[in-house]
Specification:
The structure is a single chain. This protein has seven helices and ten strands. The protein is α/β, with parallel strands linked by helices. The protein has one domain: Rossmann fold (3-Layer(aba) Sandwich), CATH 3.40.50. It has a seven-stranded parallel beta sheet with strand order 1-10-9-6-2-3-5, with helices on both faces. Helix 1 packs across helix 2. The protein is globular. It binds the ligand O=C1O[C@H](COP(=O)(O)O)[C@@H](O)[C@H](O)[C@H]1O. Ligand LXAUTJHC binds next to strand 4. Belongs to the glucosamine/galactosamine-6-phosphate isomerase family. 6-phosphogluconolactonase subfamily. It catalyses: 6-phospho-D-glucono-1,5-lactone + H2O = 6-phospho-D-gluconate + H(+). Keywords: Hydrolase.
C-alpha cells in the first residue's frame, strides 16, 4: 500500500480527479474502451465535480459504482443519484453508465442480470474506493451475512445485509476490485486515518478494507 498525504481535502480531490483522468486517458490511447468504478457516500462528490469536466473521450468510458444501497434513485441515500448529479454530467455525460440497481424489492432478484451487464467493463481500468470508519469498503461490511463470498468468492457482485448498513447492499467483490489495473482509496479525517492504520494489522474479516490494500494507493487529507 502506498499512502499519499495532502495539505487539505480540496487539493486532494482536485489532484485525484487529475490522476484518474490521466490513467483513463492512457488506457484509451492503448485500448478502444476504459472502465472506471467509483464509490458513493459523502466523500467523492468534489472529485466528481472536477472529473466530469475533464476533456476525455468519455464516449469510450464505462462508469459503474463500486457498490449501491438498495434504494430507488429518488432516495437521498442512492449512490446512483449522486453519480448522476455530479459525475455523469458535463463532458462525462457521454460515458456509458452500467447500473448496480434495478427496480425490484431485493438485490438478489436482479443480481445475475446486473452482474452479466458488467462484462464489457471488466477487468476494471481504474477503481476508486471509499472507506467507512468501521473499515468497510465498497459495501463489504464487517459482520455482513455474505462477507466470505464478497472477500473470497469468484462472483462479480454480491448482495448482502450488514449490521452497519440500514438497507440491503449490492457490491463489487474483492476479486473484481483487486483485478483493477489501478486502485485508489480516498479518505478524509483523523478517524478514518486511525481506522486505516488499524486495518493494516487486522484480517479482512475484521477489517474488509484490508482485502484491497495490497497494491492500492491511499489518498488522505485531515480536512
Ligand atoms: O455506504 C457507503 O460507505 C462508503 C464510505 O462512505 P463515506 O460517506 O464515509 O465516504 C462508500 O465508499 C460506499 O460507496 C458507500 O456505499
Amino acid at each position: 500500500m502506498k499512502l499519499v498525504e495532502y495539505p487539505d481535502a480540496e487539493m486532494m480531490m482536485m489532484d485525484l480527479a487529475d490522476k484518474l483522468a490521466s490513467e483513463l486517458s492512457s488506457a484509451l490511447r492503448a485500448n478502444d474502451t476504459a472502465s472506471l468504478a467509483v464509490p458513493g457516500g459523502t466523500t467523492p462528490g468534489p472529485i466528481f465535480d472536477s472529473l466530469c469536466a475533464v476533456d476525455l473521450d468519455w464516449a469510450r468510458v464505462q462508469v459503474m459504482l463500486t457498490d449501491e444501497r438498495w434504494v430507488p434513485e429518488t432516495s437521498e441515500r442512492s449512490n446512483t443519484r449522486l453519480l448522476r448529479e455530479r459525475l455523469l454530467t458535463d463532458r462525462a455525460a457521454a460515458a456509458t453508465y452500467l447500473p448496480l440497481y434495478a427496480d425490484a424489492p431485493t438485490p438478489e432478484e436482479k443480481l445475475a442480470e446486473l452482474a452479466a451487464s458488467l462484462s464489457p467493463a471488466l477487468p476494471l481500468t481504474v477503481a476508486l474506493l471509499g472507506m467507512g470508519a468501521d473499515m468497510h469498503t465498497a459495501s463489504i461490511f464487517p459482520g455482513a451475512d455474505q462477507l466470505d463470498l464478497a472477500l473470497q468468492g469468484s462472483d462479480r457482485l454480491v448482495a448482502m445485509r450488514a449490521p452497519g448498513a440500514p438497507e440491503p447492499r449490492i457490491t463489487l467483490s474483492a476479486t473484481v476490485l483487486n483485478a483493477a489495473m489501478s486502485r485508489h482509496i480516498v479518505i478524509v479525517g483523523g478517524e478514518k486515518r486511525a481506522a486505516l492504520e488499524r486495518a493494516r494489522h487486522l484480517s479482512p474479516q475484521e477489517a474488509p478494507v484490508a482485502a484491497v490494500l495490497n497494491g492500492a494507493t491511499v489518498h488522505w487529507a485531515e480536512a
